[in-house]
């Protein structure tokens, strides 16, 4: 009888904690990653995430090599919301998000037609306080949400509305990799994004996506979206008030709506964030840590923090939305 790859790892599977593998640094982290690749990936699929502690990762080139050994392929970020430093092809810093504000639970690039199935994180420098990358089981979140709300989102999907300008958030060039209008319009048409150029030269887009998907490997139904994270009611109240004063209620850099265009109330956003919080497992980073996250099975977040925090990110093994049994059409409205 053959032994499953997962059984080859001595994982710590304590309830309420992330599955953790404690190892001793070998001086050849990329070689270690290549040797244990299949077992780590199988365990990530089975448990949703795996924390590897003790590798002693620190050098960006070494981290990039580890990511490439673990991934089938690394992908470039598309339709970005915040700036990142690039360390190499497919290897980035974490998003430039204010340290005193948390990043709520989300699934990376869940608003695109092709998104990573695997997220890779490596901590070069742990913050002095806070800054943990929390994880939450997407199937558990789905099961805990009210059935009528889930049914509506399954039926209608969710709508992401973005306003691009040169003052706040990502510019057109940063999000699309070009400021050529023809190229931007071609990208939008190919990716189910409705667009409208504004009189001031800005761009407004809308894209409808499914809120619930089936995992392409396990078939499990997962709550997969960024409805709460990218909604205006998750923005710091003072920041939101300022943005509304300056740009108007329809000019916010981003917000989310029900798939039919109806606004999503603050009560719904609060419910989603509370449900995520109840399912969240978090642990402080230690410098040198490696974290693998199944991006469809598991949402992730980032706590507010103090001190220097350096976490490198790899978005790996892209999967198409059409491979995950979407429940709504993606044609622009």
Automatic annotation (TrEMBL):
Its cofactor is Fe(2+). GO terms for molecular function: dioxygenase activity. Keywords: Antibiotic biosynthesis, Dioxygenase, Iron, Oxidoreductase. It holds the Pfam family TauD. The keyword Transferase does not apply. Residues 28-314 form the TauD/TfdA-like domain. The keyword Disulfide bond does not apply. InterPro entries: AlphaKG_dependent_hydroxylases (IPR050411), TauD-like_sf (IPR042098), TauD/TfdA-like (IPR003819). GO terms for biological process: antibiotic biosynthetic process. This is Alpha-ketoglutarate-dependent taurine dioxygenase. It comes from Pseudonocardia kunmingensis. The lineage of its organism: Bacteria, Bacillati, Actinomycetota, Actinomycetes, Pseudonocardiales.
């Amino acid at each position: 009888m053959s032994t499953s790859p997962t059984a080859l790892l001595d994982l710590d599977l304590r309830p309420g904690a992330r599955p953790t593998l404690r190892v001793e640094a070998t001086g050849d982290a990329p070689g270690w990653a290549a040797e244990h690749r299949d077992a780590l990936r199988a365990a990530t699929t089975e448990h949703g995430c795996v924390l590897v502690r003790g590798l002693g990762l620190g050098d960006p080139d070494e981290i990039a090599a580890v990511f490439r050994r673990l991934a089938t392929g690394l992908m470039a970020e598309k339709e970005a919301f915040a700036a990142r430093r690039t360390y190499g092809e497919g290897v980035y810093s974490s998003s430039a998000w204010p340290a005193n504000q948390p990043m709520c639970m989300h699934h990376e690039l869940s608003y695109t037609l092709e998104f990573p199935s695997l997220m890779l994180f490596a901590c070069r420098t742990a913050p002095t306080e806070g800054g943990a990358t929390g994880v939450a089981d997407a199937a558990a979140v789905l099961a805990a949400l009210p059935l009528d709300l889930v049914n509506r989102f399954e039926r209608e999907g969710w709508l992401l509305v973005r306003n691009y300008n040169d003052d706040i958030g990502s510019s057109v060039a940063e999000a699309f990799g070009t400021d050529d209008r023809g190229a931007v319009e071609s990208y939008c048409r190919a990716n189910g994004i409705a667009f409208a150029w504004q009189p001031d030269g800005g761009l407004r887009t809308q894209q409808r996506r499914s809120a619930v998907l089936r995992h392409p490997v396990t078939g499990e139904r997962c709550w997969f979206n960024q409805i709460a994270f990218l909604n205006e009611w998750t923005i710091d109240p003072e920041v939101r008030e300022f943005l509304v004063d300056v740009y108007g209620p329809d000019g916010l850099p981003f917000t989310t709506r029900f798939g039919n265009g109806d606004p999503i109330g603050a009560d719904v956003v609060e419910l989603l964030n509370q449900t995520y919080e109840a399912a969240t497992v978090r642990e402080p980073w230690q410098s040198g840590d490696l974290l693998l996250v199944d991006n469809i099975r598991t949402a992730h977040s980032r706590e507010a923090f103090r001190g220097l925090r350096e976490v490198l990110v790899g978005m790996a093994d892209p999967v198409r939305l059409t491979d995950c049994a979407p429940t709504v059409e993606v044609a622009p409205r």
